[in-house]
Design brief:
Elements lengths: L2 E2 L7 H10 L6 H13 L33 E2 L3 H4 L5 E3 L11 H20 L8 E6 L2 E6 L6 H10 L19 H21 L4 H13 L12 H22 L9 E4 L16 E3 L2 H11 L1 H11 L8 E4 L1 E2 L5 H10 L13 E4 L12 E4 L9 H17 L10 E3 L18
Parallel strand pairs: 1-6, 3-12, 5-6, 7-11, 8-10
Antiparallel strand pairs: 2-11, 4-5, 4-9
Helix pairs in contact: 4-5, 4-6, 6-8, 7-8, 11-12
Bound molecules: zinc ion.
Zinc ion (ZN) binds next to helix 11.
């Protein structure tokens, strides 16, 4: 059984309602939503702790839920406030070549797309976004919504051949901007790659050898080369081996998912009053994974270095990838977590974050954004202060945000399939 941290997802219809209204002219009911959003703009603290759903199948790898931080921060933007973050629209970049450790990130991206698409297509639920990481011999995976269906979706993606029919392997010439055709084509290609490389093993050794050679040449180094070559190669091999084990198990008749850790949103966030129509709340998938790493940092780091016979202070690489590039909120939190004693500050001698793209997605309105506060500093007080700074930037000082004025792919942003991101490219 998978390791599920807890079960709490917003109803699908709430989420859908928010998405379909995101770019529409405000209606009367939305004015209420905006008033609520305004009430949250001070990023106030709340100390209310909600009794969470009981843990499902707690195994030795999974930490107990952490209590809600006493100064948990969050914020919510109105559409007008979100519009105060100017972006530079660009066309989707050309397909990117993934080299070195980025090949691991590419496989994580394929897993995210396979799970995301299969949840929609076969399980009829919308996760909005799925993010995936691999380190310490385990695959970490989270979705914004419906995380309890992730393992079912992964199994189906690798075993249900009906998913592979009805879509061309490549989009027909002239049809590149047809969203549905692109999505169908991509899903089939990505699932096929996972099946061939990892489940059937075709080209697996060649891919791993190529990645090793590239890393040795200094191309596609994990986390900008902070780990050193020996450690980078150990972690590269281990990541590929873990992905192969996980995907072969997931494709089997009775998968155990023993090396999969599923992270569910809203596990340790403060309970808010009932949200108005059109407003949702979430902690995005990558922040859920990162928050869990922060809460278990000592143990998970020790396990990872022991497993690979690395020095006790070796940096463990946390690759992260999803269907979409990180949104403005996640990009801001991740950037902060790389500095000043945050979870991914190399000076801590613990973890470093690896993303194959520095691109930043959109900032969403009418969505309460809970912040993965534990990733921001070593002490709760300092973490709360840094989270407050992030929340205040979004609401009061958008010009200080990483996303401010940066390029964003808006090509598909009016399509209902992609409205949640606006940047699916990984250029
Ligand atoms: Zn996000």
């Amino acid at each position: 059984m998978p390791n599920i941290h807890s079960c709490m997802s917003l109803p699908h219809d709430v989420c859908r309602l928010s998405r379909t209204r995101r770019y529409s002219v405000p209606e009367k009911s939305e004015r209420t939503a905006h008033a609520f959003a305004f009430a949250l703009t001070g990023a106030r603290s709340r100390a209310v702790h909600e009794a969470r759903a009981p843990e499902v199948d707690i195994s030795r790898q999974v930490a107990q839920p952490a209590p809600v931080p006493p100064n948990a921060r969050y914020y919510c933007l109105t559409p007008d406030e979100a519009a105060q973050i100017p972006r530079q629209p660009i066309a989707p970049p050309r397909p990117k070549r993934y080299l070195g450790f980025d090949r691991v990130a590419q496989s994580l991206r394929h897993i995210a797309i396979a799970v995301n698409m299969t949840m929609r297509e076969r399980l009829h639920v919308d996760p909005l976004e799925v993010q995936v990481s691999v380190f310490g011999g385990r695959l970490h995976i989270a979705s914004n919504f419906h995380a309890d269906r992730i393992c079912d979706a992964l199994h189906l993606a690798l075993t249900d051949d009906a998913l592979m029919s009805g879509a061309p392997r490549r989009v027909a010439p002239g049809d590149e901007r047809n969203w549905l055709a692109m999505v169908m084509s991509r899903r089939v290609r990505d699932i096929a790659k996972l099946r061939h490389r990892y489940v059937q093993g075709q080209g697996f050794d060649r891919m791993r050898a190529a990645a090793r050679a590239e890393v040795k040449q200094g191309t596609g180094l994990p986390a900008d080369g902070t780990t050193g070559l020996h450690s980078a190669l150990r972690q590269l091999d281990d990541a590929f081996a873990t992905l192969r084990n996980v995907l072969r198990d997931a494709a089997s008749e009775s998968p155990q998912f023993a090396e999969v850790v599923v992270h569910t949103p809203m596990r340790d966030t403060p309970k808010l009053p009932a949200l108005p129509t059109g407003v949702t709340e979430t902690m995005h998938a990558e922040q859920c994974i990162e928050s869990a790493i922060a809460e278990n940092a000592e143990r998970w780091h020790r396990d990872a270095v022991t497993r690979l016979h690395l020095c006790p202070d070796a940096l463990i690489v946390v690759p992260m990838a999803g269907r979409f590039v990180p949104c403005a909120a996640c990009a801001e939190v991740e950037a902060e977590s790389r500095t000043q004693g945050g979870l991914f500050d190399p000076a801590n001698a613990r973890f470093v974050l690896h993303r194959s793209s520095r691109r930043i997605g959109m900032a969403f309105a009418n969505e309460v954004q809970h912040i993965a506060q534990a990733t921001l500093a070593g002490t709760p007080a300092e973490a709360a202060q840094r989270a407050k700074t992030i929340a205040e930037r979004f609401v009061h000082a958008p010009h200080l945000l990483r996303a401010y004025g940066t390029p964003v792919v808006l090509d598909y942003s009016l399509d209902t399939e992609s409205e949640s991101s606006g940047d699916e490219s990984q250029g």
